[in-house]
Amino acid sequence: MTLGRQLAIAISATFFLALAGVQVIHLRSAQAHLQQSLEALAQDAATSIGLSLGVLMKDTDPALVATVVNPAFDRGHYQRIEYFSAGGEMLVSKVLPTQEGRYPGWFVELFPLHAPTAQSLVSAGWRQLGRIQVTAHPRFAYEQLWATARNTFIYLLAIYVASMLAMRVFLRSLLKPLAAVEGAAQAISNRDFVTLDVKPSARELARVVEAMNALSVKVNEAIDSESRRAERLQAAAYRDPVTGLLNGRGFAARFQSIYEGEHETFSGVLAMVEITELAEINRALGQDRCDELLRELYRQMQEVAGRVGGFVGRWTGTLIILALPGVPEREAAEKLAALRERLRPTLAKFGVERLDRIYCAGVEVGRERTTLFALARATEEAVLQARESGQGVMVVHAGEVPTAQESDPVEAVREALAARRLQLFGQVACRMSDHRPLHTEILTRLNDASGNEIRPSLFMPIIAAHELFEQLDRAVIEQVVAQLKSQAAAVTAEGGEERVSINLSMRSVEKQAFTDWLVKLLAADRPLAQRVVFEVAEHGIVKNEKVAAAFARAVRATGAGFAIDDYGVHRDSAAIVPRLRPSYIKLAGAHTPRVANDAGTRSFAESIIGAARQLEVPVIAQMVEDEATYHALAASGFSGYQGNLVGPPAPWPAK
């Protein structure tokens, strides 16, 4: 119950009791007054009739008594008038029949009035003739008391209603800032440190608002400071200081987080552009002028890669590396040739006339899985061939590697998804401090019609090329949910229900129909939803953060969690965590081996952990393979770890 409602109930109850007390006291006072009035009425009537009879009668005369009594009795204020002789004999008796008054019966029981009886002696001179006895009728007193009670109740009720309305207006204005304070408190509990613009008139509330604002400002400043530090360290570790492009380490981290491990394989062309005799150009133009030339050249290269969804990095001092996903060999050759021609005016603008200083080469890779460094070596050899041949541009193919026995692997993947021939594997993520399980990450394999496994190196490129991510994600979610429902009694070794994490493609998240389907599925079983966390890779989130934020809100509303996978490879890494408030973040596996051996990477990781800790967001390291790496990560402040040190992926659920 809200404070406003409690105050309203307390004040209204107190006021009601006060008004009820006023009503009761007033009616009791009126009751006592009317009782006294009835007694006085009876006594006055008896005295008046007795005096009149004493003057008029010389001897007992019942007819004369009746003549005197009748006018008084007919007024209806007396219940009984009786005349007794001196000997006690009743000579005249007038009794009023019982009549219903204009008041309810329960009122008579609640406020009883007694019918008083008074008497007076009738005497002629010194001789007593008899006595007169009068009993007053309380009907008119009841009617007057009932009218008083009714009118007083109406007036007090009007006062009560008006007071309650005034109190409601007053409390609403007084407690309006309290609603803002409550909302801010809930936001802070959700790690959203907002500030309040309201200025309460109540001193206590004003101080609470000031304290909360001061707390939020300090925490936001700490988060911003840590975020800026993380950005600076990321730039120092993964960006070229001259051009602002990714350096070799940064390019490798991004490439590996997107295209290696359990992710889709790279399909397209990995290209390099070599600027020869860079030292001679630097001496001729001067360092500042040469740096300006490089920035202009690299900007044009970045435009070429950006148009096809790729990215660029400075691989070495003279080599620029470009990832061109989805671009075939012939198109890549045309793009590189056009790029080389586009660079001619820029070189001429800076006084460099020789176009043969720039060589472009690339290696096309298809569905075969390979590593970045193997591709890079092949591309460097292609650059050498382009330079030696004098062609200036060369694109070669990395060579096909047989990956499956099917004549149509695309159809095999489609058929496996349609038939839900999925094999689920799980790898446990553990708490850094005591190795207790945090959750199990679900990994997927496909089986063909013969039951043979279709390796991820084959089916992931097919899924990417044919937009089958949503179909794959739905199949995985359905199978995981079915397993969780069938394991109602399944618990971890520590006695708690097992939590699982499911990786989703951003391409699925971007489809509203998928989100609606998922929310409906989770909303039907909230306890089950609370055991599931959905991980989305950072490189997908930064492309469409608005959709990712809406998806995070939707799944959190069902009780499920939202987390960021492969974190820390994008320029905007530090900024997205405060905005999305994930359940946890997983640092990209490419960073893990460097944390133990490279001070820059270690400082970068520690800055991420510091910023996340302010938001109470755990940071989990991936690809932890040995004890030395584990201890280095523990010293850096990671909350959890995952990798072959815990154990390789195993069939899930465990038998």
The percentage of residues in β strands lies in: 15-25%
Helix content: 40-55%
Briefly, what CATH class of the largest domain?
A: Alpha Beta
CATH H-tier superfamily of the largest domain: EAL domain
Low-confidence stretches: 400-407, 489-495
Distance between the termini: 48 Å
CATH topology-level fold name of the largest domain: TIM Barrel
Number of helices, where a helix is a run of at least 4 consecutive DSSP H or I residues? 22
What's the alpha carbon Rg, rounded to whole Å? 48 Å
Shape: rod-shaped
Largest sheet: 8 strands, mixed, barrel
Number of domains: 3
- In CATH, the architecture of the largest domain is Alpha-Beta Barrel
Write out the strand line-up for the largest beta sheet, numbering strands in chain order. 11-12-14-15-16-17-18-19
Structural class: alpha/beta
Query: What's the number of extended β-strand segments?
Result: 20
Mean pLDDT: 84
Descriptive labels:
18% strand, 22 helices, 8-stranded mixed barrel, 20 strands, Alpha-Beta Plaits, 6-stranded mixed β-sheet, 655 residues
Characterization of the model:
The chain has 655 residues and is α/β, with parallel strands linked by helices. Helix content is 54%, strand content 18%. It has 22 helices and 20 strands. Helix 1 (3-56) runs antiparallel to helix 2 and helix 4 runs parallel beside helix 5. Mean pLDDT is 84; it is low at 400-407 and 489-495.
